[in-house]
Amino acid sequence: MKSERVKRPAKMWKQKFTEKALKFMAQWRLQGMVLPGIAFMFIFTYIPIYGVIIAFKHYTITDTIAGAPWVGLDNFKVILGDRYFMEAVVNTLGISLLKLAVGFFIPVILAIMIFELKDGPFKKIVQTISYLPHFLSWIILGGMLISWLSTSGLLNQLLLGIGLIKQGNNHLLAANQYWLIAVLSDVWKEAGWGTILYLATMAKIDPTYYEAARIDGATKWTQITQITLPFLTPIISLNLILNVSNLLGSNLDQTLVLMNSQNSAKSEVINSYVYRMGLTQGDFSYATAVGLGISLISMVLLLITNTVTKKMNDGESVIF
Amino acid sequence: MKQKTGKTVRENRLFNFLNLALLVVFTLIVIVPIWNVVVSSFTSSTALADGHSIFWSQDFTLQNYQKVFADTSIWRAFGISIAKTVVGAFTHVLFCAMVAYGLSKKHLVGRGFYTRFGVITLYFGGGMIPYYLLIRSLGLLDSFWVYIIPGMLSYYDVIILMNFFRDVPASLEESAKIDGASDWTIFTKIFLPLSKPALATITLFNGVAQWNDFMTAKMFITNQNLYPLQMKIYEIIVQSQTKGFDNAALTNSVVQSSSKGVQLATIIVTTVPILVIYPLLQRYFISGMMVGAVKE
Question: Could you report the predicted ipTM of this complex, rounded to two decimals?
Fold first, then answer.
């Protein structure tokens, strides 16, 4: 009796396995379409994840990843005493927070303003033009910025024109202006594109709300604060929270193109530091350790924000 | 009551006027700087140096463009950019579609495992350095294929296509199967043609990303003959900015001869394809943005 009980599940498992294997063989065409994708992800994502172990090794370019000697947490200990790394963290956080403070609500306001326009050619033109900068690469925008901010460039000419300054100077060489330049150029590039999500949400609001408000004599301003904004609040807060979890994220393209020897103390961010330490200076293990440390902190931030959003969203996760 | 309505009407008029005025200002803030670059690219270096050509060129010239087009390395970079955009976008969308088709079938053995395997790639990665070491060990450094192969699959796009394929009526597939069609035939003859809007959107987004991408070249390419336009511009701008125009140590012909006007002309040449394509296909871009947002 007892032996039978043990045997039967084993038999079933075996049978199930054979069934699955036969089914697998029968659908070899379908499997043949999926498996290359699995192999691709294994190579291009999972192998680099395994490669992260060099953060705990002393890896040089002539080593293999497996063969390099282990050094434990040595690389991480160096990070804590690294003045340049700390500088990069301060810059990353400073730029991210400033971006959040200056840039976060602009798309919301812009979306509401566009929403209040009557449908017609002007609305179309505003939308088309405002989305346009999103499609410029950071290299292109960087080149444009270098021109606008140069001594004889657009910004200085406008400031001279209205008499705010007496003499032009190159703003990209002024380190203390870099954060502002990084933030404002990013806002300029993405503000219009950021309205799409809000515009789509507003398009779903029942127009009878506005009709009723009009009959009651509500002003446009009242309509915005009493109808539009309450509808937008969930998506605004979700967006805000996702932004918070990405505080340590930085824009490598932007930094590489706008950084120069004069502003590097204010423009070096975590990503560009990893890039420089690893690929320019060849300190692969140290750069990987920095990257891993930052990823872990970001993951904690994401988990915290996920818990918060779950509470706000009736227990349902919006991130995972 | 009447008075109140009159006040409301007046207030709303004021609101509409201010709204319109502010949006005009906003549009100008976006368009004037871009216009300024266009104007500057048609202005001689001497006129650019005294800086009075803001809205209209003080000394119109085509010289900057002549210099750009006379440089064979720019033409070459243009060719590389077009090749990587076209080949990259098409291989990406076809590979993603193929994998998504297989994964959209509920009876696929191992489907649960496969999808979990894929979702993990959305949240985890090895980071910059291990990725670089992988590319190096695959022998993709200084190869054109580094632009194409590592970008062929994104699980994010696979999810979008999978959702699209699920909406294709099952009866279509069943009747094709009765006629003896194989999975591959059903995929290429039924699913791909029916999913044209989704495929077009993904191709467009990937194409723009390919055209604008410069990090791949910056990280993995040292052979200047393989530089795409974006990398060429990066080189021209950053090197001329950091090293100055007079530095004789610069070997590159464009860098040496590049004045601000030439740089801006190169920028315009690189941007024109986007400026032409984007307004025509704006609809697809926006719908693509929405598809992505719904998934999130």
Answer: 0.87
